[in-house]
Design goal:
The protein has 125 residues and is an all-beta fold. Helices cover 0% and strands 53% of the residues. It has strands at 3-11, 20-25, 28-31, 39-43, 53-65, 75-78, 84-86, 93-101, 110-122.
């Protein structure tokens, strides 16, 4: 992978490799736990203990472990364990997206992704 921007952040809790990270306090990160978290990046190849420094890819290409089936080109967000899943909007909610899948995959596969943070909303009906 050829990431464009990698930055280190203090981990407020242990965080695994190739997972989605969220902002968890003042300049700290933790494993994301869902699509409404403030998703900031994807961890690199090394897990980090609580209090350690976690390297996150913030822009460019990364690898991500999946939490379900995804297809090439799908927009991804986080499941409850920081794994990538397809974005599913619910009426009246806003979800955070973090990446676009660059390959097909199923749960626990590690695939290449392009970081593309954003929001997706679906009006209440």
């Amino acid at each position: 992978m050829n990431p464009l921007l990698i930055k280190s952040f203090k981990a407020s809790a242990a965080i695994g490799a190739y997972l989605i990270a969220k902002a968890s306090g003042d300049k700290t990160v933790a494993t994301a736990a869902g699509s409404t978290d403030k998703l900031v990046g994807i961890t690199r190849e090394m897990a980090t203990d609580s209090g350690g420094m976690a390297d996150l890819t913030l822009a460019g290409a990364a690898e991500l472990i999946l939490g379900g089936t995804v297809g090439f080109g799908d927009r991804l967000t986080s499941d409850a364990n920081g794994k990538g899943i397809v974005v599913a909007s619910v009426n009246g909610t806003v979800v955070n997206t973090i990446a676009i899948a660059l390959a097909d995959g199923v749960a626990n596969d590690r695939i290449p992704v392009l970081l593309a943070p954003g929001l997706q909303s679906k009006p209440a009906s």
